[in-house]
Specification:
Layout: E1 3-7, H1 11-22, E2 26-31, E3 41-45, H2 51-58, E4 63-66, H3 75-93, E5 96-101, H4 124-141, E6 147-151, E7 154-156, H5 171-175, E8 180-182, E9 192-194, H6 195-206, E10 215-217, H7 226-237, E11 244-246, H8 249-256, H9 260-264, H10 270-273, H11 281-287, H12 294-312
Parallel strand pairs: 1-2, 1-4, 2-3, 4-5, 5-6, 6-10, 7-9, 8-11
Helix pairs in contact: 1-6, 2-3, 3-4, 7-12
Length: about 325
């Protein structure tokens, strides 16, 4: 089987690396600190902005999966050097560059988000993400690299913890039957992309020439409100209905005085105050793959969180 390089070992990077290894590929995971070896997975301690060293690590690889992201409040200055290193390694090695993107680049949109929409964001983070793909697409069109971007909505599922809106701030309380607080309007439709489906899409597009040269949306179940998702999780957990409250804007503003992460949430508040719905029909039609059924997603998530919390006792 082939060699794949995975940049980052957060929820998406870890899920992608492990899926590749399960399918018999050799995987090199690049992180600043390295990590403990796993079957089929080699951890390489490396700053991914070092283009020369990243190129050395990627020699002989079929694909480079970019699953890392700079600190949230540093996207404007930190994404360009990371992206430049990825482009350089892809060009020098011939490996397919598989970018894990998000939906920020579209900016506020009326109606479902689809891949044919322009990247019209005006905010700092939206422009930073859009620029990464725009340059990759330009290099692909020039024949200098082979590139593809996989875009997902907010991650949900096993492995998603502090960075998820339906994760550490929501699931542990509801497992105890307690009220939960969410960002924005708890009753507005929102798309939640299941993490294993993200990994599956990243692996699929790396090996299929039909995918290259354009973005794809990860197959995602129909949008549900935060309250609706909490109800499903609580029902599966057997804790009964729990109260779902909107986090007061004043509290977020106060927290932003001390947390750069919370302070940066203002730019994407529109995603939680109005319908935010992803369309993944293009991917589903092209590759004949659908999102994991919501019942399976919820069951796996509750089980994973229960095991995680029990292990901490």
């Amino acid at each position: 089987m082939s060699v794949h390089v995975v940049i980052g070992f957060g929820p998406a990077g870890a899920a992608t690396a492990r899926l590749l290894a399960e399918r018999g590929h050799s995987v090199r995971v690049v992180t600043r600190s390295g990590g403990s070896p796993e079957p089929g997975i080699e951890h390489v301690p490396l700053d991914a902005t070092d283009g020369e060293r990243l190129t050395e690590v990627a020699r002989g690889a079929t694909a480079i999966h970019s699953c890392a992201a700079p600190p949230y409040h540093r996207w404007a200055d930190a994404w360009p050097p990371l992206a430049a290193s990825l482009y350089a390694a892809a060009e020098a090695t011939g490996a397919v560059l598989v970018l894990l993107g998000n939906l920020y680049g579209y900016g506020p949109v009326d109606g479902p988000l689809t891949e044919d929409l322009p990247l019209a964001a005006t905010g700092t983070k939206g422009r930073a993400r859009a620029a990464v793909w725009e340059r990759a697409h330009e290099l692909h069109a020039q024949g200098r690299i082979r590139a593809v971007e996989v875009r997902a909505s907010d991650f949900f599922g096993p492995g998603v913890t502090d960075g998820g809106h339906l994760a550490s701030r929501v699931v542990p309380p509801l497992l105890r039957g307690r009220a939960v607080s969410v960002l924005g309007d708890p009753d507005t439709p929102h798309s939640w992309t299941y993490l294993p489906d993200v990994a599956r899409a990243l692996v699929r597009v790396a090996d299929d020439e039909r995918a290259w040269g354009r973005p794809w949306h990860v197959p995602t179940e129909p949008a549900r409100s935060a309250r609706g998702m909490v109800d499903l999780l609580a029902a599966r957990a057997g804790t009964g209905p729990v109260a779902v409250r909107r986090t007061p804007p004043a509290l977020l503003k106060l927290a932003g005085l001390f947390s750069p992460l919370v302070r940066e949430l203002g730019e994407i508040r529109y995603q939680f105050d109005r319908p935010f719905v992803i369309g993944s029909h293009a991917y589903e039609a092209t590759f004949a793959e659908r999102a994991t059924p919501i019942e399976v997603q919820v069951d796996a998530t509750v089980t994973w969180w229960r095991e995680r919390l029990a292990a901490r006792r």
